[in-house]
C-alpha cells in the first residue's frame, strides 16, 4: 500500500459565509499538511487534495463531522507522494462554473451507481454524453459516447443542437468525478429533456467500483499524474501521438511555456522532441526541461502553503490554533 492518498470530492450544501469558511478550511489543510485545490462557494465545496494516509483520514473525518458536509463522498486513490505542488483554497461564485440557471439541490438527473450504469449503458435506448472538455475526452471516453468540442462546461448551451434529435432517448451524462453532471443534467432537464441520468461519482468511481468496463483510454485528472488508468476489464487506447500518430494514452503539457498545450505524445517523440508539440515549440528559448512526465507546475520559489491564509483579524494565524476555535 502506498503512503499517500489522493482525495476527490464535492458536495452541494449551502455555506452562509464562504469567506469565513475558506479561512477555516485553509487552516485545516495547513494543519494536516495537505496540498491541492479546494473551491468554497455559497452552494458548497469542490476539492481534490493529496497527503499522507493518516492526514487524509483526519481531513475526511473533520469534513463529515460538520453537519453541512456529513454526506460528502470521497473518491480515494493511492500515491507514492503528493500529487500537487501547492495549496489553493479559494472562494468562487460556483463550485463548478457554468452560469446555468439551475440548482442541483432542487432538480438534477437520476443518479446511477457504477454497477447500475454498467448494466444500463448498453441499452439501445441509452445515449452516453460526455460533459468534459475536449482535451479530457481526447485521451479517454466511454465506447460510443457523444462528445462535444468545448473548452468548458459554460459552452454546453452552444452544443445542445448536437443532441436535439435524442430527446426520446435515455440520456446518461458522465464526467471525471460527477460534479459537472449535477449541473449538466439539471440543464438538460430545464431544456425539456425528460429521461436524464448521470453517473454518480463519475469515471473515477466507476473504475474503482465496477472495473471501468468499456472506458477506452485513460482518464484526465487535474494533478501531477495528468492521466490515470480506469479500465481493468477491456482496456483500449483511443488517442494517438500528436506528432507521429502511433496509438498512445500518454498525455503531457507541451514543454514550451508559451504553448503549454495538452497533447498526447508517445515516449519516443517525447524524448526526440523534448516534450514539445511542434518544431517551433522545440526551439522556444524558454523551453522547460522535459523530465518524461510532461507536467510542469508553476514556479514555486516564493511560495509557501501559508500563502492565501489570512486570519479574520487580518494577521497570520498560529498553526497550533484549532480549526474549531
UniProtKB/TrEMBL annotation:
Q: What is this protein called?
A: tRNA uridine(34) hydroxylase
Query: What are this entry's molecular-function GO terms?
Result: oxidoreductase activity, acting on paired donors, with incorporation or reduction of molecular oxygen; transferase activity
Q: What is its EC number?
A: 1.14.-.-
Pfam families linked to this entry: Rhodanese (PF00581), Rhodanese_C (PF12368), UPF0176_N (PF17773)
State the function annotated in the UniProt record: Catalyzes oxygen-dependent 5-hydroxyuridine (ho5U) modification at position 34 in tRNAs.
Report the Gene3D superfamilies cross-referenced here. 3.30.70.100, Rhodanese-like domain
- Name the source's superkingdom: Bacteria
Q: Which organism is it from?
A: Spirosoma agri
Q: Which family does it belong to?
A: Belongs to the TrhO family.
PANTHER family, per this entry? RHODANESE-LIKE DOMAIN-CONTAINING PROTEIN 7-RELATED (PTHR43268:SF3), THIOSULFATE SULFURTRANSFERASE/RHODANESE-LIKE DOMAIN-CONTAINING PROTEIN 2 (PTHR43268)
One BP annotation, GO: tRNA modification
SMART domains, sorted: RHOD (SM00450)
Amino acid at each position: 500500500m502506498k503512503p499517500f492518498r489522493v482525495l476527490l470530492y464535492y458536495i452541494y450544501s449551502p455555506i452562509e459565509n464562504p469567506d469565513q469558511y475558506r479561512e477555516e478550511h485553509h487552516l485545516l489543510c495547513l494543519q494536516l499538511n495537505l496540498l491541492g485545490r479546494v473551491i468554497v462557494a455559497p452552494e458548497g465545496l469542490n476539492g481534490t487534495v493529496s497527503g499522507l494516509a493518516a492526514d487524509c483520514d483526519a481531513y475526511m473525518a473533520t469534513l463529515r463531522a460538520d453537519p453541512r458536509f456529513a454526506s460528502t463522498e470521497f473518491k480515494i486513490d493511492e500515491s507514492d507522494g503528493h500529487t500537487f505542488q501547492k495549496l489553493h483554497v479559494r472562494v468562487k461564485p460556483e463550485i463548478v462554473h457554468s452560469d446555468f440557471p439551475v440548482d442541483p439541490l432542487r432538480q438534477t438527473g437520476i443518479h446511477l451507481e457504477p454497477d447500475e450504469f454498467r448494466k444500463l449503458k448498453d441499452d439501445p435506448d441509452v445515449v452516453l454524453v460526455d460533459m468534459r472538455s475536449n482535451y479530457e475526452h481526447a485521451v479517454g471516453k466511454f465506447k460510443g459516447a457523444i462528445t462535444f468540442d468545448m473548452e468548458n462546461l459554460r459552452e454546453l448551451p452552444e452544443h445542445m443542437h448536437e443532441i436535439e434529435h435524442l430527446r426520446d432517448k435515455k440520456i446518461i451524462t458522465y464526467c471525471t468525478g460527477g460534479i459537472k453532471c449535477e449541473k449538466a443534467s439539471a440543464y438538460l432537464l430545464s431544456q425539456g429533456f425528460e429521461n436524464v441520468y448521470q453517473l454518480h461519482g463519475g469515471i473515477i468511481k466507476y473504475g474503482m467500483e465496477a472495473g471501468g468496463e468499456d472506458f477506452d483510454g485513460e482518464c484526465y485528472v487535474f494533478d501531477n499524474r495528468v492521466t490515470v488508468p480506469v479500465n481493468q476489464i477491456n482496456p483500449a487506447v483511443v488517442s494517438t501521438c500528436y506528432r507521429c500518430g502511433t496509438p498512445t494514452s500518454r498525455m503531457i503539457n507541451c514543454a514550451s511555456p508559451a504553448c503549454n498545450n495538452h497533447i498526447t505524445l508517445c515516449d519516443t517523440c517525447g524524448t526526440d522532441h523534448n516534450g514539445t508539440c511542434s518544431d517551433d515549440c522545440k526551439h522556444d528559448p524558454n523551453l522547460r526541461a522535459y523530465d518524461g512526465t510532461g507536467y510542469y507546475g508553476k514556479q514555486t520559489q516564493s511560495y509557501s502553503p501559508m500563502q492565501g491564509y489570512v486570519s479574520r483579524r487580518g494577521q497570520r494565524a498560529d498553526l497550533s490554533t484549532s480549526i474549531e476555535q
